[in-house]
Backbone:
């Protein structure tokens, strides 16, 4: 887990829905130092206690907002957190 990624996820834009923020926080928890989290939609859904459909919708919206980029691996899904990019909006640094 990257503490920086977790702080950025928790301080992401206020217009995120609660489930989207939770999914983003779980991705940050799973992310390596390079910002890539290797986890499946079904695992995220289970951790967030939502359906896989809801988790998928949250992931799509987070991607549309520029907070993550989906990557594909052969056996699982991978997601690159883009919280510290201009479109991702790093509010953690401005509030610290």
Residues:
């Amino acid at each position: 887990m990257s503490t920086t990624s977790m702080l950025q996820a928790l301080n992401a834009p206020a217009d995120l829905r609660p489930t989207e923020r939770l999914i983003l926080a779980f991705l940050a928890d799973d992310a390596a130092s390079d910002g890539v989290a290797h986890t499946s939609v079904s695992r995220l859904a289970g951790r967030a206690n939502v359906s896989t459909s809801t988790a998928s919708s949250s992931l799509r919206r987070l991607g549309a907002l520029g907070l993550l980029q989906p990557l594909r691996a052969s056996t699982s899904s991978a997601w690159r957190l883009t919280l510290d990019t201009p479109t991702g909006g790093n509010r953690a640094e401005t509030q610290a």
Notes: The chain is about 50% helix and 15% strand.
